[in-house]
C-alpha cells in the first residue's frame, strides 16, 4: 500500500463509523405514550416485551387466547415498581385465537377501539413443532402455518388500512433463525418462519412509500416454554424443555433488543450467536456444505431417537 493510501482508507473508515453512529442516534425514538399491540403476551418473549414496553411508557394492548393468563400479566405490570418512575398506562387486553383467521377482523376492530389507533404491532405469538416429515400429518403442517403465518399476516392486513390512512405505524414480526435456515425435524416451523420472512420483506418494500417501517426480528434459542408447547407429527404436545432452548438467550435481553429495534426502526435483525449466524451465511455462500451438515445432523438425531 502506497504512503498516501493507508491514511485515506483509515479516514474513510472513520467517516463511515461516524455516519453509522450519527444515523443510529438520530433514529433513536421513544415509545412513551405510543400504542403498542403485542400478540402472545401471556408468556415467554411476549410477556417480557410487555414488561419492557410498559416500563418504557407504552400504551399496551396485550393479546392471547387465555383471558385469565392475560389478566395475570396486567396485574404483574400494574404492580411492578420499576415502571413507577415514568408515566405508565394500564394495559388493555384482547382475547382471540390467531389460528382462527375468520375471527381476526373482529379482533382487529376490538384492538382499534382500545386507543383509536395502533402505532406498533408486534406479531410475536407462535408455536413450534418437532417431528419427521414421514410421520407428520398434513393437518399439523397446516396448524403451524395457521398460527405462525396466516394469523400474523391476517392481523397485519386488518390493521394496515388505518396505519396507511394515518401515514403512520410500524409492523414488527418475531420470526426465527429458522426463517433463514431450515434444520431437520422442524419442517412445519421452519416453513412457517420462511414464509413469514418473505411476506414481511414484500410488505417492507410496499409500505416504504407510506412511511410505515417493517421490522423482522430473527432470534436464536430463547429460554421460554416454546419447545414444551410445540406440537408433534400426530398433533400431540411435545412437552419437553429442549437443552438448546434451556441454554438459550434470556427473554428479557431479547425483549430489550426488540425495544431497540422498534426505536431504531430497524429492517432486519438477527439475534443469534456466532454459530447460527455463520450457518445463515453458509446457506447463501456455500449451500453444498450447509446441506451436508444438515444431512449429518439429521442422521445423528435419527440415531438418538
Ligand atoms: N423460544 C425460542 O427458542 C424462540 C426462538 C426464536 C423465535 N421464537 C419465537 O418467539 C415467539 C414467542 O415464542 P416464545 O418463545 O415466547 O414461546 P411461548 O412461551 O410458548 O409463547 C408463545 C405465545 O404465543 C401464544 N399463542 C400460541 N398459539 C396461539 C394462537 N393460536 N393464537 C394466539 N396466541 C397464540 C401463546 O399464548 P396462549 O397460549 O396464552 O394463547 C403464548 O403467549 C414465537 O413466534 C417463536 O416462534 C422463539
TrEMBL record:
<dbReference type="InterPro" id="IPR057326">
    <property type="entry name" value="KR_dom"/>
</dbReference>
<dbReference type="GO" id="GO:0006629">
    <property type="term" value="P:lipid metabolic process"/>
</dbReference>
<keyword id="KW-0521">NADP</keyword>
<comment type="function">
    <text>Putative oxidoreductase.</text>
</comment>
<dbReference type="GO" id="GO:0005737">
    <property type="term" value="C:cytoplasm"/>
</dbReference>
<dbReference type="Pfam" id="PF00106">
    <property type="entry name" value="adh_short"/>
</dbReference>
<dbReference type="InterPro" id="IPR036291">
    <property type="entry name" value="NAD(P)-bd_dom_sf"/>
</dbReference>
<dbReference type="GO" id="GO:0016616">
    <property type="term" value="F:oxidoreductase activity, acting on the CH-OH group of donors, NAD or NADP as acceptor"/>
</dbReference>
<dbReference type="GO" id="GO:0016020">
    <property type="term" value="C:membrane"/>
</dbReference>
<comment type="similarity">
    <text>Belongs to the short-chain dehydrogenases/reductases (SDR) family.</text>
</comment>
<keyword id="KW-0520">NAD</keyword>
<keyword id="KW-0560">Oxidoreductase</keyword>
<protein>
    <recommendedName>
        <fullName>Dehydrogenase/reductase SDR family member 7B</fullName>
    </recommendedName>
</protein>
<dbReference type="InterPro" id="IPR020904">
    <property type="entry name" value="Sc_DH/Rdtase_CS"/>
</dbReference>
<dbReference type="InterPro" id="IPR002347">
    <property type="entry name" value="SDR_fam"/>
</dbReference>
<feature type="domain" description="Ketoreductase">
    <location>
        <begin position="34"/>
        <end position="225"/>
    </location>
</feature>
Amino acid at each position: 500500500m502506497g504512503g498516501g493510501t493507508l491514511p485515506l482508507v483509515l479516514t474513510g473508515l472513520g467517516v463511515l463509523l461516524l455516519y453509522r453512529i450519527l444515523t443510529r442516534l438520530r433514529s433513536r425514538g421513544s415509545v412513551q405514550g405510543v400504542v403498542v399491540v403485542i400478540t402472545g403476551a401471556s408468556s415467554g418473549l411476549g410477556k417480557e416485551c410487555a414488561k419492557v414496553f410498559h416500563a418504557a411508557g407504552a400504551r399496551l394492548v396485550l393479546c392471547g387466547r387465555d383471558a385469565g393468563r392475560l389478566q395475570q400479566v396486567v396485574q404483574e405490570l400494574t404492580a411492578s415498581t420499576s415502571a413507577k418512575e415514568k408515566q405508565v398506562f394500564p394495559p388493555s387486553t384482547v382475547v382471540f385465537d390467531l389460528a382462527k383467521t375468520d375471527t381476526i377482523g373482529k379482533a382487529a376492530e376490538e384492538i382499534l377501539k382500545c386507543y383509536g389507533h395502533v402505532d406498533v404491532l408486534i406479531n410475536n405469538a407462535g408455536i413450534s413443532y418437532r417431528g419427521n416429515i414421514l410421520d407428520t400429518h398434513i393437518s399439523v403442517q397446516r396448524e403451524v402455518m395457521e398460527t405462525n403465518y396466516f394469523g400474523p399476516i391476517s392481523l397485519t392486513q386488518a390493521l394496515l388500512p388505518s396505519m396507511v390512512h394515518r401515514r403512520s405505524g410500524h409492523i414488527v414480526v418475531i420470526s426465527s433463525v429458522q426463517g433463514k435456515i431450515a434444520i431437520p425435524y422442524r419442517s412445519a416451523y421452519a416453513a412457517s418462519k420462511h414464509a413469514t420472512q418473505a411476506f414481511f420483506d414484500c410488505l417492507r418494500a410496499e409500505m416504504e412509500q407510506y412511511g410505515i417501517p417493517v421490522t423482522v426480528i430473527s432470534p436464536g434459542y430463547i429460554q421460554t416454554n416454546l419447545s414444551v408447547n410445540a406440537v408433534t407429527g400426530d398433533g400431540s404436545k411435545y412437552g419437553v424443555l429442549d437443552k438448546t432452548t434451556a441454554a438459550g438467550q434470556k427473554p428479557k435481553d431479547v425483549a430489550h433488543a426488540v425495544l431497540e429495534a422498534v426505536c431504531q426502526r430497524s429492517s432486519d435483525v438477527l439475534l443469534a450467536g456466532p454459530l447460527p449466524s455463520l450457518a445463515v451465511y453458509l446457506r447463501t455462500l456455500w449451500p453444498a456444505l450447509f446441506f451436508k451438515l444438515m444431512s449429518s445432523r439429521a442422521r445423528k438425531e435419527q440415531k438418538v431417537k
